[in-house]
Amino acid sequence: MLAFALRRVLTLLPLLLLVSVVFFAMLRLGRGDPALDYLRLSQIPPTEAALALVRQQLGLDRSLPAQYLSWLADAVRLDFGTSWATQRPVLEDILQALPATLQLAGAAMALVLLLGLPLGLLAALYRDRWPDHLTRALAFLGVSLPNFWLGFLLVLLFSVQLGWLPAMGREGPASLILPAIATATVSLCVTLRLMRASVLGVLGERHLVFARARGLPERGVIARHVLPNALIPPLTTLGLHLGELLGGAMVVEMVFAWPGLGRYALLAIGNRDFPALQGFVLAMTAVFVLCNLLVDLAYAWLDPRIRLGAKAA
Length: 313
Prior knowledge:
Elements: H1 2-10, H2 12-29, H3 34-41, H4 48-58, H5 64-76, H6 90-125, H7 130-144, H8 147-161, H9 174-203, H10 206-213, H11 218-230, H12 232-236, H13 238-255, H14 261-271, H15 274-302, H16 304-312
Helix pairs in contact: 2-15, 3-4, 6-7, 6-9, 6-13, 6-15, 7-9, 8-9, 8-13, 9-11, 9-13, 10-11, 13-14, 13-15, 14-15, 15-16
Subcellular location: Cell membrane
Organism: Teichococcus wenyumeiae
GO molecular function, one term: dipeptide transmembrane transporter activity
């Protein structure tokens, strides 16, 4: 297990290198003049002398490979440059915004696990009865709602009409409720449907008949034989769900003025803030890889066949 984890961590380095190369080239080969964007954000008149000076200071007068190698040498030392919009180091901005995004994604993931898995189990155990029909209808409705539109509806109902919860900002636990619900809804509904299908597949297996024939109570059969096997398919998608939560949180953070990485990235896109965008993409790539590593380890822990296959190999 430790060797598997180390191999996956080592794959992070070439992946980050590849992502940095592709994204660096995409930014530089796009339309527009980065020097002009820098002057606009700095509120400096774009004269010919100012443009020439900025191109020299930012290294834009050099070839694209030389620019990338210079940036990479600094990035290895965790120096991702200075944001053109905030005039602060990009790493400092990312570390300042990352806790808010992780808090939002963590709360949304908690909702997915605490509601999606039990509701999926309930729908499967009461197949073709009213709990099944109700949860399936709610899941269909939840998947059909865009998270930003759901966010506006939640603000309209709970903040404007009822006045129960704050509409914007990150001021306390209450301000986390609405953005977490808006972020988690789609993933929660997908997990519910997947858990239902997985449980139904396990309920049809033969070993459950023998377990009941031995006199095991129904709760014991479900807890010991149904759940461990039914959890494997939903667990394998948790890494994808986390990516959806982090990606979906970008728009939700703008709706709720949540000071996280998604809002930081969208503002950087609007400002064409190249250093901020490059740092954001690398940070998100690292988070995705590490989260998928944790999912793979949990998958191997739940399914002994994976561990046996690793030992045999």
